[in-house]
Amino acid sequence: MSRFPEAFQEETRKRLGNDFGLFMESLNGAAPVSIRQNPAKNALPLPGKPVPWSAFGRYLETRPSFTLDPRLHGGAYYVQEASSMFIEQAFRQLTDLHAPLNVLDLCAAPGGKSTHILSLLSDQSLLVSNEVIRSRASVLAENLQKWGYQNSVVTNSDPDHFQSLPGFFDVMVIDAPCSGEGLFRKDHEAAEEWSPQHVALCASRQKRIVADAWPALKEDGILIYCTCTYNEQENEDNLLWLREQHDVEFLKVSIDGWNIQETKKNDVIGYRFFPHRVEGEGFFMSVIRKKQVSPSLRLKANRDLTPAPAKIVNTLQSWIHHPERVSFFQWKDLLYFFPEAHTLHLGMLHQHLKVVNAGIATATVKHDKLIPEHALAMSTDLRRENFKTLSVGHDEAIRYLRRDPLTLPETDKGYHLIVFEDVALGWVNSLGNRFNNMYPVEWRIRMQKTS
Ligand SMILES: C[S@@+](CC[C@H](N)C(=O)[O-])C[C@H]1O[C@@H](n2cnc3c(N)ncnc32)[C@H](O)[C@@H]1O
Description:
The protein is of the alpha+beta class. The chain folds into 3 domains: about 5-290, Rossmann fold; about 300-385, Nuclear Transport Factor 2, Chain: A (Roll), CATH 3.10.450; about 385-450, Nuclear Transport Factor 2, Chain: A. It contains 13 helices and 23 strands. Helix 5 (about 110-120) links the parallel strand 5 (about 100-105) and strand 6 (about 125-130). It is globular, with a radius of gyration of 23 Å. The protein binds S-adenosylmethionine. S-adenosylmethionine binds next to helix 5 and helix 8.
C-alpha cells in the first residue's frame, strides 16, 4: 500500500492526468540537494549546476555533512530546496530592486526566504522578518545573524499586530504554514498528518493570516503568496476569497523553459512546481498587486533607542565599512548599528511589534572596555583589516565551532577573528598562549567528527 493518503492521490490524479504515474514515481525517488550562496560572503560562484531561476542557487551531486562545513556556520551559504528559490523571479521581474523598499516576510522561520530576499534587495531597503512562534523566531534570528546584513529586523508578533502599520510595506511575502503536500517525498510526517480536514484547517488559518496582514501593504504594493502544497483550497481559493473583498490584480511571471506549470483559476494566476517536472520539491506561488489606497503612516522618533555614548562611537565607526550610513545605538545592554535611513521605521516597529533583533549587535561594554559581539564577526560590513585575524584549517575550525580546546600558535593579546577559507567564524580572546573561545555556547556544534 502507498504511504500517501488515498484522497490526496485521487485529487492529484485528477490534476495531473497522464502525468500522475510519473509524479508518484518521483515521490519515491531521491530529493535533489541544493544550496543558495551568500553573494556578500563569496567572491567566486560555488561549484555545481545552477538552479535555473536563481542567480545564487546550486545543485550538489551528493549531500555533504553540512554540519561539519565551517562555511555554513559563517553564513557563506544556506541549504534550501530549489523550487522555493523561485520567489527571486517575483522580485526581479515585478519590483524595482534599485529602489528603497520596505519588505515584510511574515512567516519567516527558519529564514530561507528572508536570507534570499536580503541578497536581492539594495542596501537602502529594509527587511522585516517575522515569526509568530518564539522558539522559531530565535532560529530565524540566528540564521539572519549568520547571513550578516544590517538592513534586517526580526520580530516575533502575531500577524494581526501588523495592522498597526497601515501601508508600510512595498512588498509582503506570505510563505504560509500549509498541509505540505509538496514535501511528501522528504517529510514522511507531513504525509501522515495529511487529511481533508487538515487541508481545510490550514486554508482557514491562511485566510486569517492574509486578512490580518493585508492593511500593512501599500497601494500598488505586491503580495507574494506561497505554500509548499498543491491543492486549490490553500492556494487559488484563498486568493479568490481575497479578491472578493479587495481590489487586486494577479501578476504574471515569465517562466520560459523551466517546466514550471502556470495555472489559472478565474483570474488567479499561479505557478506550480511538481517534482517530476522540475528539480525541486512541490511549491506554489502567486503574485498579487494591491489596488486600493492605504492610509499613510506618520513616523515618530523612538525613545527606546538611546544613541551610543559619544566617547566610543569613533572606535565603533572604525570597525565597519561606511560608518557614515549607519547610526549606533544602545538597546538593552548591547551596542548596535543600523541603517541611518531607517531609524524612524525602526521606531515604528518597536512601537507596535515585539522586536527580537534590529541591525548588527556590535559590542558590549565591560569595565570601560568594548567586547566585540559575534554578530559583528558575521557582518558583511565588518572592516576586517582593522582586526587581528587567525586563519585556521578545517580541523581547528571544527574545534572552534564545538568550543573544544584550541591549539593555535601564540599571538598578541586581544581579540582575534577566526577565519576559515576567507569566511569569518567568530572571535577568540587571546591571552598570549591561551585563548578564550567566544563562539556562542548555544550554537556550538554537538556532532562528533566522523572521519
Ligand atoms: C512554511 S513555514 C515558513 C518557511 C520560511 N518562510 C522559510 O523560507 O524558511 C511557515 C511558518 O509559519 C509559521 N506559522 C504557524 N502558524 C502561524 C500563524 N498562525 N501565523 C503566522 N505564522 C504562522 C510557522 O511557525 C512557520 O515558521
